[in-house]
Amino acid sequence: MITIVDYQMGNLRSVQKAIEHVGGEAKISSDPHEIATASQLVLPGVGAFGDAMAEINRRDLAQPIRDFVDTGRPFLGICLGLQLLFEQGFEHGTHRGLGILPGEVVRFDLPESFKVPHMGWNTVHKTAPSAILDQIADDTHFYFVHSYYVRPADPSLTSLTCNYGHDFCAMVTRDQLFATQFHPEKSQANGLNLLRAFNNLASATESQSHSS
After folding, report:
1. Where are the catalytic residues (predicted)?
2. If we measure between CA atoms, which residue out of 208, 199, 143 comes closest to residue 18?
3. Tens digit of each residue's pLDDT (9 = 90 or more) over 142-194
C-alpha cells in the first residue's frame, strides 16, 4: 500500500488513479501516524511553497514526513513535493521547508522569450543512476508546470536535468528517496513507467521486510 499525503494542495486523486493504473494500491491520508508508519509514501503538490508548508505544519505532518524518510522506505515527491524537501524557498518571501535535503528553491530568471511558468512537455537527461529510471530512456519527455526550481547544495543528488533557458534539476535521488519536478501522473506512458518502477520497488521492499 502506497500512502499519498493529503495537505489540501495537490491533485491527489490523479496520483492515486495513476498508481492504481500500474497495479499499485494507494490511499490518501492526512493522519500523522499513518504517514510516519507507511510502507511507501508519496508527497504530491500544486501551489505555493509557503502556503504548503503552513498547511503541513498546521496538520502536524512535517515531523511524520521526516520520520518516514529517516526509515529509508521508498518515498516519491512530485513537483511541489520535490521543492518542499529542501531547506528554504523564496516564493513570495522566504519560507523554511522540510529541510530533508540541503539546498533552496528559486524562481526562473529568464529572458522575455521564455514564458514563466515553464509549462508543457520537455526533455530530461540522466546525470546519475536511480532505481526508478532503469526503464526510462535518456531524452525522455515529461510534463512540467512550475515557476520555481530546486538548487541542491549537493550536486550528487541530481539524477535528471532539464533545460529551460538553462539546465535545472528535474529529479533528485538519495537511496530510496526520489522526487521529480515534473508530473509523472500527467506524463502518459513515460510517467506511468516511472510510477510502475516506484511501485515495484516499494513492493520488493515490503516483501523483504516481511521475510526478515
Report:
1. 79, 183, 185
2. 199
3. 999 999 999 999 999 999 999 999 999 999 999 999 999 999 999 999 999 99
